[in-house]
Design a protein that fits this description.
The complex is a heterodimer of chains A (657) and B (303). Chain A has 657 residues and is mainly alpha-helical. Chain A has a domain at 604-653. Chain A has helices at residues 2-20, 25-51, 76-101, 109-128, 132-150, 157-185, 193-199, 208-222, 231-237, 240-250, 252-265, 270-292, 297-324, 328-363, 374-377, 379-393, 399-415, 427-450, 457-460, 467-485, 488-502, 511-546, 571-581, 583-586, 604-623, 632-653, and strands at 57-61, 70-74, 550-553, 588-592, 597-601. Chain A has a two-stranded antiparallel ribbon. In chain A, a hairpin with an 8-residue loop joins strand 1 (57-61) and strand 2 (70-74). In chain A, helix 6 packs across helix 9 (231-237) and helix 9 runs antiparallel to helix 10. Chain B has one domain (3-302). In chain B, helix 2 (18-30) crosses helix 11 (250-274) and helix 8 (162-189) packs across helix 10. Classes of the chains: A mainly alpha (657), B mainly alpha (303). At the A-B interface, helix 17, helix 18, helix 22, strand 3 and helix 23 of A face strand 1, helix 4, helix 5, helix 6 and helix 10 of B. Strand 3 of chain A pairs parallel with strand 1 (53-56) of chain B, so a sheet runs across the interface.
């Protein structure tokens, strides 16, 4: 654990150096990058050791606060999340240095670096905390630091509003967590996770209250439908590397919380598993549908986070159901798929947000319909973005396919089990639908933003961003490919974490798990075969075309003589058939005339439900306003009236006993 | 991997271009026309392979890579099917997900290539393609999971071989429904009537054809061959489900498959002669019906 805390200290030191040395920007930037990078590597050492099969490590700190000692420790589940948080966190922080460099004049950039360092440290501590109070402290630090980063561009009303909604949402969730640990902790000797786990069997109704509170409290953070309402705004309004951290990492703490809750409680009852599965399906399908309707690149990506949280929840739900119906293979595979997708989503989604940030920097706009043709002007950004979008769609040979495949295995294996668990097999069709819709959405993004021709001047004037932004993106893209081609590297650790949550010891002894491990090798083989066959095919094609005349001409316009860039298909028109087919769910306002077609995306939960009912509540509360006049004698009158009323009540109730 | 599985794969790969021709020939026969020869596509492919290429100045390397990727991914998907009725060229537990993902990869490539041209027509085709795919994909998964439920196997090689033949006596109604559903999905995936009309000459009504307007020469040959291969692939699935041939010897099993494929192609031709194309906004309903059929088949097996 010494290495772990030393690493976190280095990251934090990087943040402080950035602030202290802000008068000498190049020095501060370099030191920040070096310290954060070094800190992540050092901090990851104990996590790697645990995942490689070493024993669980922990350290206990006695504090003069109620709730017992603060315990920090790394078991396979914590270690897996710590690894993801440090790796992706460092890449995003390094990107942030180059990304915010242009804003040094008019915004407190150094402070943002310090906050990012604090965010990474608090994330790692959330994953490592093994006591409720320490967990909640780290959780709150993370939430507040994230708020400060969301409102970094605070002169924009959009950022202030998104920040406020985020702050309200996250504290509603934290409140649920306080209640959760309080109701649980009254039975335990102290609030360390070990003590809580010891009293778990004594919880009334199998811990039903704790499970529901956990689903609300952690669900708000994870952004599952319908608790996702804060997410798109907050992710879109932040600086792009912060969006990457929020979408890639911060929402994953909600998933970590749910997994930790299950590991402490033991196998949850079946109804909870079905509820998580249903929420996962709803989040997955609705998230991608809402994403299809977006015009703002970062909002679109934010809704895809909702979708991917849905996929993760499908895995988590299958894990819970496998436990409830005593099918350990399904339990282990479900949790493993969830954990693995947490990692993969962290990698490709942060990469997508960094790519979106580069596009926004280069063009000054996030509006998809103003862009186009960027693949020629920003080739490296395009290539990394393409890799990430193929990964998020779940296409081989990339990492997204691997984790979706594991989730599919859990769903399909439910079909060959016995009893009511078999019904869960229909989730596979749902996951297929989610994948196909995601393909439609990313075909739209890639096609409209990067391919074709520039629709507006700002897109035509784009230039590739600097190496400081490209290097972290290339690193993340390589991670996508590496995990896709060599999934064996991550499946072992993920299985360990999944086995821990499922409470199954000796997972390699399970027949289905051994079969899955073999299959993962086949996936690696198929990825290599795919890449090799593609390479071979391209060589053949090049050899054939070398001896042939190859001409360059205009795009075939079906006989039309004067095509222009505005005649290209736009994001609105591309998504129109799907959006209209799902009109009741999509929450899209369509404006159609003889010459124009426009869609306006609204978040059904936030704008149609929450803000409306809030407005109604305010109107009702307004009726009470006349009694608050702010005049002393009126309040005195209220006091006198209340006393008289109480006296009358006492007189009417008769003498006390 | 066995000799017979590789030999059958080679047979399917070489027979594939005859299938669209046979479908068209059946259609022209039933509508009283002479029609093009059954082997027309072979001549077309040979002609295109000898030609040079013309590229739009708007296109990038995406446009050049996509046709190769489309064929390669379909080819690898074909390797997962037990074409001779007993064993695939390669397969593992859970490869049905890889099968679907490989087909999706090919689609993603072709759609991006269409958008790469910046043409409004090709953008329109791409939009329709991904829309209908989003309705067909759950159907494909429902069909595959019916096979999972019926056979208890998670690999294409397992579920389409001997276990399927054993499942027939108990699960016949479900398997027939899945066969029909797969046939309908095949019509959608391979752009045939009533979803798409390969014979149409109006760009505005096209789906698949309009996406590949700009491809020429060897690239177009790859696209055409990929389309034929996809027909063979789905046809093999239909034949594999409806006519389990795992008990037969190697050459006989392969022969059953090839005859079955020709039958499926003739069936496509019959459908094209007796049905008109659906209005575009009716296509989702058509595909949802196919998915619902597979869903019912699954429910039958769960009972």
């Amino acid at each position: 654990m010494a290495f772990f805390f030393a690493g976190l200290a280095l990251i934090l030191a990087g943040g402080f150096v950035a602030v202290l040395a802000r008068r000498a920007p190049p020095v501060a930037d370099h030191l920040f990058v070096v310290l954060v990078g070094l800190g992540s590597v050092v901090g990851a050492v104990p996590a790697l050791r645990v995942l490689a099969g070493g024993g669980v490590v922990s350290v206990s700190v006695a504090v003069a606060l109620p709730g017992g000692p603060w315990v920090f420790g790394l078991d396979p589940l914590s270690a897996f999340f710590v690894l993801v948080f440090l790796g992706v966190g460092a890449a995003s922080a390094m990107y942030g240095v180059a990304y915010l460099g242009a804003e040094r004049g008019h915004r407190p950039v150094a402070l943002a670096h310090l906050l990012v360092a604090m965010l990474i440290v608090s994330l790692a501590l959330v994953a490592a905390a093994q006591a409720a109070v320490a967990f909640l402290v780290a959780w709150e630090v993370m939430a507040i630091v994230a708020y400060l980063l969301v409102v970094f561009e605070s002169e924009r009303a959009e950022a202030r509003r998104a920040g406020l909604i985020y702050l309200v949402a996250t504290h509603t969730g934290t409140l649920a967590l306080f209640v959760l640990f309080a109701t649980w902790g009254v039975r335990a000797s102290d609030l360390t996770f070990a003590s809580l786990a010891a009293v778990a069997p004594a919880l009334p109704y199998g811990g039903a209250a704790v499970l529901v509170l956990g689903l609300v409290g952690f669900g708000v953070k994870a952004g599952l439908v319908p608790l996702h309402f804060w997410l798109p705004g907050a992710h879109a309004a932040s600086p792009s590397h912060v969006s990457a951290l929020m979408s890639g990492l911060v929402i994953k703490t909600g998933i970590y919380g749910l997994l930790r809750l299950v590991s402490l409680l033991g196998a949850p009852p079946a109804w909870w598993g079905w509820a998580v599965l249903a929420l996962g399906l709803a989040s997955g399908v609705l998230g991608v549908l809402w994403a299809l309707a977006q015009h703002d690149l970062k909002r679109l990506l934010a809704y895809h986070s909702v979708e991917n949280i849905g996929i993760i929840l499908l895995g988590l739900g299958m894990g819970a159901l496998g436990g409830a119906y005593h099918v350990p293979v399904v339990a282990v595979l479900g949790y493993t798929g969830a954990v693995l997708h947490v990692m993969n989503h962290a990698v490709f989604k942060s990469l997508l947000f960094l790519g979106a940030g580069s596009v926004a920097r280069a063009t000054g706009t996030r509006q998809i319909d103003r862009l186009g043709g960027l693949s020629r002007l920003m080739p490296v950004t395009w290539l990394t973005f393409l890799v990430a979008s193929a990964a998020i769609v779940g296409l081989p040979p990339l990492n997204g396919f691997v984790s979706e495949w594991v989730v599919f295995q859990a769903l399909l294996r439910a079909g060959v089990a016995q009893g009511p668990l078999r019904l869960a097999v229909f989730g596979a069709a749902g996951l297929g639908l989610i994948g196909a819709l995601a393909l439609a959405c990313f075909a739209k993004v890639d096609g409209v933003v990067f391919l074709g021709r520039a629709r507006e001047a700002e897109a035509a004037a784009a230039r590739e961003v600097g190496a400081g932004m490209l290097v972290p993106m290339i690193a993340l893209a390589l991670a996508c490919v590496l995990i896709g081609v060599a999934p064996v590297l991550v499946c072992g650790p993920a299985l360990r974490a999944g086995g821990l949550v499922a409470g199954v010891g000796g997972i390699s002894g399970l027949a289905g798990v051994a079969e899955t491990v073999v299959a993962v090798r086949w996936i690696a083989g198929s990825a290599v075969a795919l890449i090799a066959a593609l390479g071979l095919g391209l060589l053949l094609r090049a050899a054939i075309l070398r001896r042939r005349p190859v001409a360059v001409d205009e795009t075939w316009g079906c006989g039309y003589a004067v095509p222009n860039v505005r005649m290209q298909y736009t994001a609105s028109s591309f998504a129109a058939p799907l959006v209209e087919a799902y009109a009741p769910l999509a929450g899209v306002h369509v404006e159609r005339s003889a010459t124009s077609y426009a869609t306006h995306a609204r978040d059904p939960v936030l704008e149609l439900a929450l803000l409306r009912s809030w407005g109604r509540l305010r109107t009702l509360a307004g009726r009470l306003r006349p009694i608050q006049r702010g005049r002393l004698h009126v309040y005195l009158l209220y006091v006198v009236a209340t006393v008289i009323a109480l006296l009358v009540y006492l007189a009417a109730a008769g003498p006390a006993r | 991997m066995t000799v017979s599985s590789v030999a059958t794969l080679a047979a399917v790969l070489s027979v594939a271009p005859a299938l669209p021709g046979l479908a068209n020939r059946t259609k022209s026969f039933l509508t009283g026309r002479r029609g093009a020869p059954v082997l027309q596509l072979y001549s077309d492919l040979a002609k295109l392979a000898r030609k040079g290429a013309v590229y739009s100045g708007t296109t990038t390397s995406v446009f050049r890579v996509a046709p190769v990727l489309a064929v390669v991914s379909t080819l690898l998907a074909a390797c997962l099917l037990p074409l001779d009725g007993r064993e695939p060229v390669a397969g593992f537990t859970g490869d049905i997900v890889l099968f679907a993902a490989l087909l999706a990869l090919g689609r993603f490539a072709v759609v991006l290539a269409a958008l790469d041209t910046g043409s409004s027509f090709e953008g329109m085709g791409a939009s329709r393609e991904v829309t209908f795919a989003a309705f067909a994909e759950p159907g494909l998964f429902l069909c595959l999971l019916v096979l999972v439920l019926a056979t208890g196997r998670l690999s294409l090689g397992g579920m389409l071989a001997a276990p399927l033949a054993n499942a027939w006596p108990t699960a016949a109604p479900s398997l027939v429904m899945v066969g029909i559903s797969l046939f309908v999905l095949m019509l959608a995936e391979t752009s045939r009537v009533p979803v798409d009309d390969p014979a149409t000459h109006l760009e505005l009504t096209m789906i698949h054809e309009v996406m590949v307007l700009d491809h020429s020469g060897p690239d177009l040959a790859l696209i055409l061959y990929g389309g034929a291969l996809k027909l063979a692939l789905f046809g093999s699935l239909v034949v594999g489900v409806l006519v389990p041939h795992s008990a037969l010897d190697a050459p006989a099993g392969g022969a059953v498959l090839v005859v079955g494929l020709l039958g499926v192609a003739a069936g496509v031709g019959v459908v094209e002669s007796v049905m008109a194309r659906l209005r575009l906004d009716r296509v989702p309903q058509f595909l949802i019906t196919a998915s619902a059929l597979a869903g019912f088949a699954a429910i039958l097996l769960l009972g």
